[in-house]
């Protein structure tokens, strides 16, 4: 005879219920899939290749999370039938042992909802795995209910990660787009001729000295400690000023494309941000290692959840301070070199960055954003699964600071630190390779088409022209970045030298 709970299986569930639930799930899944598909087509149509690759990376991460959830579903009965000694469940508990009802000692892994007693709980507690372990005098490694709660956690983590990535891109892009006015103003003020008049030269020198004076005036230049303190404070109220932007732009152009002062530095930075976004949206193996370590150390009385919430804040402040200090160092170096009447120019160099690697800062920002997303995802999961007054949530005095710190980290990192990183890391020795690949291909194709249309006897063939460009185009590639060298091309018996990178128009 069927047990009292047998009617809960699909065998005794109305077909219209099964069909309705499946329809809703399939429709929602198809809508999300179509949305991502058309979003990708929109990005490709608008030639947003970096964002398109970031979207593909995001799809990969969502697929990975879905695969993890699928594995939990497929092996849930196998996992629930793994029995372990009761003594192992007396150590490293997220809640105090006396917070469980007395009859729940054998089944403490079946969930931690304190507002429900053992006699009234039925969700999936009477599963076959629990019965097998009880007959052996043991407890299941994970019950079906605990696995179900892990499914919810994976879903919440995926949603929060996507939302935070979108927020980061929107806020960071909005801050950088504000600099477009500075870019337009600077390009309008550029001299139309190579020889500067006395007034134009005086204005040019004054603008660069303004940048130097902002960072070297007073005791700031004399005291190293005060220098770092000012760098720490500056990231909160004026991370990048117009004089900073002008000087860094000038230093970048003088280092990499001195023959093209009209280079669109702002558009270059936007494409750099889009390219870096591909890294930010990903979840690398060491981030999963951090998740596992956090779940392991979330022991009652250790307040791991509370203390780890301050780790991304400390790292964020350290990164922001370092970036501001790099700008100050560039200003101090510029102040030491020029003599009277000379322009104090910024000299980009990798030695200002930690271990001479500007890319390290991006990985730190990536870790900061992911850990913050994980912290808040874990918080929302606890509320939705166990309630606000769960023992895992701890006291209200621990909850409010965590939420406040999480919001501060997200806003500060997205709107201040990430844009600051985008402009300061251009002060390294190299270009970023991925920014120019598409531009180089499209430009070479345009040159080849121009030669084909000429149809002159002396004009070199398209294939010969492409070979000539490839042989004379010298690039120095290092660590995923590229520095353009002089490009010499000879066509129709003439020789011309192009020393500028492809203009981002």
TrEMBL record:
<feature type="transmembrane region" description="Helical">
    <location>
        <begin position="16"/>
        <end position="36"/>
    </location>
</feature>
<comment type="similarity">
    <text>Belongs to the MLO family.</text>
</comment>
<keyword id="KW-1133">Transmembrane helix</keyword>
<keyword id="KW-0112">Calmodulin-binding</keyword>
<feature type="transmembrane region" description="Helical">
    <location>
        <begin position="360"/>
        <end position="383"/>
    </location>
</feature>
<keyword id="KW-0812">Transmembrane</keyword>
<comment type="function">
    <text>May be involved in modulation of pathogen defense and leaf cell death.</text>
</comment>
<keyword id="KW-0568">Pathogenesis-related protein</keyword>
<protein>
    <recommendedName>
        <fullName>MLO-like protein</fullName>
    </recommendedName>
</protein>
<dbReference type="Pfam" id="PF03094">
    <property type="entry name" value="Mlo"/>
</dbReference>
<feature type="transmembrane region" description="Helical">
    <location>
        <begin position="277"/>
        <end position="296"/>
    </location>
</feature>
<keyword id="KW-0611">Plant defense</keyword>
<feature type="transmembrane region" description="Helical">
    <location>
        <begin position="62"/>
        <end position="79"/>
    </location>
</feature>
<feature type="transmembrane region" description="Helical">
    <location>
        <begin position="403"/>
        <end position="424"/>
    </location>
</feature>
<feature type="region of interest" description="Disordered">
    <location>
        <begin position="485"/>
        <end position="505"/>
    </location>
</feature>
<dbReference type="GO" id="GO:0016020">
    <property type="term" value="C:membrane"/>
</dbReference>
<dbReference type="InterPro" id="IPR004326">
    <property type="entry name" value="Mlo"/>
</dbReference>
<feature type="transmembrane region" description="Helical">
    <location>
        <begin position="150"/>
        <end position="171"/>
    </location>
</feature>
<dbReference type="GO" id="GO:0006952">
    <property type="term" value="P:defense response"/>
</dbReference>
<keyword id="KW-0472">Membrane</keyword>
<dbReference type="GO" id="GO:0005516">
    <property type="term" value="F:calmodulin binding"/>
</dbReference>
């Amino acid at each position: 005879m069927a047990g009292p709970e047998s009617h809960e299986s699909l065998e005794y569930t109305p077909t219209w219920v099964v069909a309705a639930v499946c329809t809703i799930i399939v429709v929602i899944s198809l809508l999300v899939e179509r949305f991502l598909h058309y979003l990708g087509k929109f990005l490709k149509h608008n030639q947003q290749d970096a964002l398109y690759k970031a979207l593909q990376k995001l799809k990969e991460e969502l697929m990975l999370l879905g695969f993890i959830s699928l594995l939990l579903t497929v092996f849930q009965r196998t996992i629930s039938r793994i029995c372990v000694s009761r003594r192992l469940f007396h150590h490293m508990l997220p809640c105090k042992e006396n917070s469980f009802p007395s009859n729940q000692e054998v089944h403490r892994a079946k969930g931690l909802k304190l507002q429900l007693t053992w006699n009234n709980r039925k969700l999936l507690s009477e599963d076959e795995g629990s019965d097998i372990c009880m007959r052996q005098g043991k407890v299941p490694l994970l019950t079906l209910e605990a696995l179900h709660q892990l499914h919810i956690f994976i879903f919440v983590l995926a949603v929060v990660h996507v939302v935070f990535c979108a927020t980061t891109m929107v806020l960071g892009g909005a801050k950088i787009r504000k600099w477009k006015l500075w870019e337009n103003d600077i390009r309008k003020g550029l001299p139309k001729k190579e020889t500067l008049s006395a007034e134009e030269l005086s204005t040019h020198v004054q603008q660069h000295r303004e940048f130097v004076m902002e960072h070297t005036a007073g005791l700031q230049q004399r005291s190293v400690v005060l220098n770092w303190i000012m760098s720490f404070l500056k990231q909160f109220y004026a991370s990048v000023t117009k004089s900073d932007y002008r000087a860094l732009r000038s230093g970048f152009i003088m280092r990499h494309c001195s023959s093209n002062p009209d280079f669109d530095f702002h558009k270059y930075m936007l494409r750099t941000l889009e390219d870096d976004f591909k890294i930010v949206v990903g979840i690398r193996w060491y981030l999963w290692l951090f998740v596992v370590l956090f779940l392991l150390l979330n022991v009652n009385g250790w307040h791991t959840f509370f203390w780890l919430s301050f780790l991304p804040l400390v790292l964020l402040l350290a990164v922001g301070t370092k970036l501001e200090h790099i700008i100050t160092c560039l200003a101090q170096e510029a102040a030491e070199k020029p003599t009277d009447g000379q322009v104090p120019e910024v000299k980009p160099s990798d030695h200002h960055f930690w271990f001479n690697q500007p890319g390290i800062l991006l990985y730190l920002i990536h870790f900061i954003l992911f850990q913050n997303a994980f912290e808040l995802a874990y918080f929302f999961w606890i509320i939705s699964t166990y309630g606000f007054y769960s023992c895992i949530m701890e006291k209200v005095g621990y909850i409010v600071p965590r939420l406040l710190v999480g919001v501060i980290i997200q806003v500060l990192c997205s709107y201040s630190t990430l844009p600051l990183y985008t402009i300061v890391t251009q002060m390294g020795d190299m270009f970023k390779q991925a920014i120019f690949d598409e531009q180089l291909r499209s430009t070479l194709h345009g040159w080849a088409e121009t030669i084909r249309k000429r149809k002159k006897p002396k004009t070199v063939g398209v294939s010969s022209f492409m070979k000539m460009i490839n042989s004379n185009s010298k690039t120095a590639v290092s660590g995923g970045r590229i520095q353009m060298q002089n490009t010499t091309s000879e066509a129709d018996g003439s020789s011309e030298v192009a020393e500028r990178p492809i203009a981002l128009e």
